[in-house]
Design brief:
binds geranylgeranyl diphosphate, 15 helices, Farnesyl Diphosphate Synthase, single chain
C-alpha cells in the first residue's frame, strides 16, 4: 500500500461527500453556510473520517457505507477547531494556512458555525437509520456524543485550560490528551467497526490501538508546534508556549517525548498486526504520524 496515495484518495472521497452533504453558500441564511464551508474546505487532512472508513474495512465491511458517519466526525472535528481558535480560548489568527473563522466572519458567526456543525453531524449520522439496524446507529451516536462531552473532548479542554501556566504531572497531561484528542479518534475508529457488527474482541483491540494512536497524534502535534515549519503546518509555531500549554515536550523534554512517541507507535503497530492483511493501513499509520510535517 502506498500510504500517501491512499490518504489522498480517501481525502478526496470525503471532500466530495462533504460537498454534497453541506448546504451551499447560496442557501439562506448565506453567511452561516459560507462560514461553515470556509472552515470545512480549508484543507484538513481528514484523518478522523479516514479512520472511520478504515476500521469498517478492517472488520470486513465496506467503506462506502460509513461515509455519512465519517463526514459527521469531520464536522464535529471542525466545530472543535473553530471554537478552539476563538479569542476566549486560544485566540489564534491562522489555521490550516488561512485566517481563522472568526477573523473572517466575526465571533458571533464563528460560534454559530461551530454549534451548527456539531448538530449537523448528528443529523447526518442519524439519517442513516434506514440502512442498518437502528440500534447500531444509536450506539455510534451515543459513543460519538460521549467522546465530545465532558467525559471526552470538552473534559480534556477544561483541564487543559485550568492547567495553563501551571506545573502539572504526567497523569494530568495524559488525561488532557486522552480526552481532548484521543477520545474522538477512538470513537471514530470504534464507529466504523460497530457499524459492521465487530465482535467484542475486535472492538477491544481497535480501542487499544486507538488509545495509542490518539496519544501519538497529540504528541506529534505538540512536537510540530515546537519544531514544525510554519509554511507546512499552516499556523505559527510556538502557540503552545504562547498559551503556556501543558505539553509532553514541556514536561519531559524533547528527547524523552520522541522516545514516548516511538514506543506508542511500536505498541500500536503490534496491535494492528493482529488484524493481518486487513490491518495494513492501521499498521502503516503510526510511522507516518511520527514523520508527519503537518
Ligand atoms: C470544543 C473548543 C473545543 C475544544 C475541544 C479538539 C479541541 C478541544 C481543540 C482543537 C485544537 C486542538 C489542538 C486539538 C487537539 C487535536 C488536534 C491535534 C487537532 C488538529 O487535528 P488535525 O491535525 O487537523 O487532524 P486538520 O487541520 O488536519 O483537520
Amino acid at each position: 500500500m502506498n500510504l500517501r496515495q491512499y490518504l489522498s484518495e480517501r481525502k478526496a472521497i470525503i471532500d466530495e461527500s462533504l460537498d454534497k452533504l453541506l448546504p451551499y453558500d447560496s442557501e439562506y441564511p448565506n453567511i452561516i453556510h459560507k462560514s461553515i464551508r470556509y472552515s470545512i474546505f480549508s484543507g484538513g487532512k481528514r484523518i478522523r473520517p479516514i479512520l472511520v472508513m478504515a476500521s469498517a474495512e478492517t472488520v470486513g465491511g465496506s467503506f462506502q457505507d460509513v461515509i455519512p458517519i465519517a463526514c459527521g466526525v469531520e464536522l464535529i472535528h471542525t466545530y472543535s477547531l473553530i471554537h478552539d481558535d476563538l479569542p476566549a480560548l486560544d485566540n489564534d489568527n491562522y489555521r490550516r494556512g488561512k485566517l481563522t473563522n472568526h477573523k473572517v466572519f466575526g465571533e458571533e458567526i464563528a460560534i454559530l458555525a461551530g454549534d451548527a456543525l456539531l448538530t449537523m453531524a448528528f443529523e447526518i449520522i442519524s439519517n442513516e437509520q434506514n440502512k442498518v439496524n437502528s440500534h447500531k446507529i444509536l450506539q455510534i451516536i451515543n459513543e460519538l456524543a460521549r467522546s465530545c462531552g465532558t467525559k471526552g473532548m470538552i473534559g480534556g479542554q477544561v483541564v487543559d485550560l485550568e492547567s495553563e501556566g501551571k506545573q502539572i504531572n504526567i497523569s494530568t497531561l495524559e488525561y488532557i490528551h486522552i480526552n481532548k484528542t484521543a477520545a474522538l479518534i477512538n470513537a471514530s475508529i470504534r464507529a466504523g467497526a460497530i457499524y459492521f457488527d465487530a465482535s467484542e474482541e475486535q472492538l477491544n483491540m481497535l480501542t487499544k490501538y486507538a488509545e495509542k494512536l490518539g496519544l501519538l497524534f497529540q504528541i506529534t502535534d505538540d512536537l510540530l508546534d515546537l519544531e514544525g515549519d510554519i509554511k507546512k503546518i499552516g499556523k505559527p509555531v510556538g502557540s503552545d508556549i504562547k498559551n503556556k500549554k501543558a505539553t509532553y515536550p514541556r514536561l519531559c523534554g524533547i528527547d524523552k517525548t520522541y522516545s514516548i512517541a516511538h514506543k506508542l507507535a511500536d505498541e500500536a503497530k503490534e496491535i494492528a498486526g493482529s488484524f493481518g492483511e486487513k490491518g495494513t493501513f492501521f499498521n502503516l499509520l503510526p510511522d507516518y504520524l511520527l514523520t508527519r510535517e503537518f
